[in-house]
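[User] Once you have settled down, look closely at the record that follows, and write a paragraph about the fold.
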Amino acid sequence: MGQICRTVEQTVFNKVQRPVREWVRRRRQRCRNGRRWWQRLICWFVTILVQIVVFVLVTIPTVIFTTICTFITITIPSAVNGIVHSIKGWNIRRKNKFPYNKEGWKECFSDEFNSNTLDTTKWTHGFMYGRAAFEEFDKVKVNPPEILSEIYLEKNIEMTGSTLKLWSTNERTSHTINSLEAAYIADDNISAQELEGRVVTSEHTGAWISTHGNVSGCIPKKYGYFEIRAKNPNSWGFWTAFWLTGDTLQGTPHLPWPPEIDVFEFWTNELRSHRPGLHLHPRQKEIDNDKNSSNFAKKTTVGNNTGKNFNIYGCEWNEEEVNFYFNHVKVYSSKKGRKKIDPKEKIDELEFPMGLILDIRIDANWIHKATFPNCLEIDYVRVYERI
C-alpha cells in the first residue's frame, strides 16, 4: 500500500505538475518579450490562472490523497504496533514485578528515616570492617601515610526528618587513627601500636553507614527481598551504592569479601545506567584477594535521570538465584554463586548472612567535573522475608 502511495504521487508530479511548471516557465519568458504592456499583462494573467487551476485541481487533491494514504499505511500500523508493544510490555512488567506485597512475604526490617537522628540500633557510621573512617589501609601503613582518596565523616550523615542524606565534600580533612582502626589494620608487618595515633589526610570527604555489628529485626539476613528508594547526586564525579556483604557477627572478624550483592551501584557520569550484580570469588583462591574475585554485573539503562528523580531499587536473593529490580520491574537475574544449581561452578556460594551498606564516595576518574557538596538522598530501606 505504501508503494502505491509513492507511485501515484510520483506519476502526478511527472505527468502534470512538471509539464505545467515547464509551460509556465516558457510562457513567462514570452511575456517578457511582449511589445505592448497590455499584452504582457494578459500573458501574466493567463500563467497565474493556469497555476491556480492546477493547484486546485491537481496539487491539493494529491496532497490530500498522499496524507490519507500515509495515515492508512504508516500512522495506523505504527499506532497499532505501539499499542501491541505497550500491552506486551505491560504483561512483561506484570510478570516481572516482584510480589513482596502479596501473600507469603512480610517486612522484617525497615528504616523510613523520619526522625532527626540516625537510628544507631540499626546503623553505624564508618567502613563496616574495623569501623574505620577510611578504607585504603595500605596507604596508612607507610610512614608518613599517603593522602587518602576520602575520609568518611559522621557529620556528612544528615537526617532531614523525612529522608537521609549522605554527603560528599571537597574539604581538606585530617583524621587520627584510633585503637579500633589500628587493631583491624595491623598485620605481620606493622603493629597496632605503630598505627594508632597516625594522622591521615584527604582532600575529599564521604559518608558510609552499615548495619554490620548491629542486630536489628532480621538483619544480618540470608535470603529475602531488599529494597531502597533513593536519588543520586545530579553531578559527575561520585560513586554511590546500596549493597550487601558478610557481617562480622558470624564470629569471623574478617568475614569473606567477596561475596557481595550490589542492589544498585552508580558512577554518576552515567546517571541513566546502573550496575546491579554480584562480586564472587574462586573457591580455591584466598577469599580476601580482590584480584581473584569475579564480577557478575549488568549495566542497566534506566528510563530517567536518577540524579533528578527518586527511584526504587530492589533485589530478591533466594536459594536458586538473585533477581534485581528497578521500580519493581526485573532488569537482571543471576544464578552465579548458587552451587546447588550448577555443581561445576568454581565460585563460592552466597552462603553467609549479610549486612546492609549505604555509601557515597568520589569517582577519581571524573572528580574534576564534580559539583561539591553533593549527596545521595534515601527515602527508605526495607527488607522482606518469606513467611
